[in-house]
From TrEMBL:
NCBIfam families: ygfZ_signature. This is Folate-binding protein. Keywords: Transit peptide. It holds the Pfam family Beta-barrel_CAF17_C. Residues 184-239 form the CAF17 C-terminal domain. PANTHER family: TRANSFERASE CAF17, MITOCHONDRIAL-RELATED. It comes from the Bacteria.
Length: 250
């Protein structure tokens, strides 16, 4: 759903795959190695199902889509050694991506060799909380095919295009954009430690929206862009509407 023709060699951007009705199935980073190779770094979706869907649109015999289960990803909360913003570092050792913001640097490294780094549950939760605080939805199975890119505020990450050629769901995305019909977007709600994806967000007895992703005491929810200045609750617990952070667009 993004315009990959604008990428130069070694550059990456956010993108995704939609249903014909314009609902988000998967979110991923698209990295261009060269004119002959693109990598998709898939966040949460079933990569085999995604590859199968993409293969339906392959019309040239020289194009192949492969799932690489032999690539190992590790992350650290530290600045990249070489990569910067949308420019990756690619060499024989692997791929380094700048997966952070100016205020909170992070690095994602992918290699074909398992570095045997132990999983750190606290660090993984902090990683997911960063994504949510910056408006990158982490879509569990029951939240896929539910939301349009505009409802997920993905224009903030420059993750979709309304000007490129046709793609599944493009008509819905473009119509919503050009007719100004986007009425809902993302909000970060704090102190939602017991929230679950799919739960209602209410003000009093009125349902305003639903939770999309959670991480610790943070919840990412789709809410009306224009809503009453009134207390919000999830599961009867008051939550605080917190501004989305910038610095993660590519």
């Amino acid at each position: 759903m993004s315009d990959i023709a604008t990428l130069g060699d070694g550059q990456w951007q956010w993108s995704g795959w939609l249903t014909p009705k314009g609902r988000v199935i998967a979110l991923f980073a698209v990295l261009r190695h060269s004119a002959e190779r693109l990598d998709l770094v898939v966040l949460d979706a079933d990569v085999d199902a995604l590859a199968t869907s993409l293969r339906r649109y392959v019309f040239r015999s020289k194009v192949s889509i492969e799932v690489h289960s032999d690539i190992y990803a590790t992350g650290r909360f530290a600045p990249p050694s070489i990569a910067q913003n949308a420019t990756a570092a690619i060499d024989a050792a692997g791929i380094e991506l700048d997966f952070g913001s100016p205020a909170e640097p992070r690095t994602l490294v992918m290699r074909e060799v398992d570095t045997d780094i132990a999983h750190d549950a606290d660090a993984q939760l902090r990683w997911r909380a960063f994504d949510i605080a910056h408006g990158l939805p982490r879509l569990d199975v029951d939240q896929r095919e539910q939301w349009t890119p505009q409802q997920l505020s993905l224009e903030r990450l420059r993750a979709f295009s309304v000007a490129k050629g046709c793609y599944p769901g493009q008509e819905i995305v473009a119509r919503t954009h050009f007719l100004g019909q986007a009425k809902r977007g993302l909000a970060v709600l704090r102190s939602a430690a017991d929230a679950a994806a799919g739960e209602d967000v209410r003000t009093g007895e009125q349902v305003l929206g639903k939770v999309v992703s959670i991480a610790g005491d943070l919840a990412l929810a789709v809410l009306p862009l224009e809503r009453p200045d009134a207390p919000l609750q999830i599961g009867g617990i008051d939550v605080v509407d917190t501004p989305l952070l910038d610095g993660f667009a590519r």
